[in-house]
From TrEMBL:
Transmembrane segments: none
UniProt name for this protein: Dehydrogenase/reductase SDR family member 4
NCBIfam families xrefs: PRK07231.1
Gene Ontology MF, one: carbonyl reductase (NADPH) activity
Family under the similarity heading: Belongs to the short-chain dehydrogenases/reductases (SDR) family.
Amino acid sequence: MARKLLGKVAIVTASTDGIGFAIARRLGQDGAKVMISSRKQENVDHAVQTLKKEHLDVEGVVCHVGKTSDRTNLVEKTVERFGGIDILVSNAAVNPYFGPMMKIKEDAWDKIFDINVKATFLLCQETVPHIIKRGSGSIVLVSSIAGYVPLSLLGPYGVSKTALFGLAKAMVPELAQSKIRVNVLAPGIIKTKFSEALWKNEGAYKMALQQIPLGRMAEPEECAGTVSFLASDDSSYITGETILVTGGMTARL
């Protein structure tokens, strides 16, 4: 590995499995000190132990991003343990509703936007002052192909992911003055627990593959290198952009 993030400190939310875990591992492999977080202590402990066995400099803390006290604790513990923050990867998201968009209840709609959009912004807001102290830094928001192309029965989730494109664009002019870059990762169909309804059902799996020119679903690790690139000086002149990791799926707003 190039160790291009040596000396950097990163926070990655929802990073005990799937895409988040793969990102945390890659940032660590590339030299960053990484604070892992998740809603359950046992998941945090397992992820931290796994990565420490790989000789990566990681710590972990429980964080439900929808809770103000948890977000504050995540930031404070990172600064306390590692001395500052250079990189924020906002990966946490929920989808409590699966079905026709017009039948969603208000509480489910609110939960999707509270976690996927509002909490993402508030965590950025709380992290930015610490990144400014370091002189420069990078924020990566994890969106989805669903933000471009609404997936069947996942309409509200897709709208929340579209909102992240707008959130990043809106933050760019202000944060650029502080040398903080803001970019977005939009994964396609990645083989994770979240998408298992697609790849565990043979019919759904075949239909999904028909949409992917590369003819296969991606592994979480195939998103991680892109985030490491966006977090590093290799992308020092890139901000306000969305990088799609979709195997060639067509996407446009």
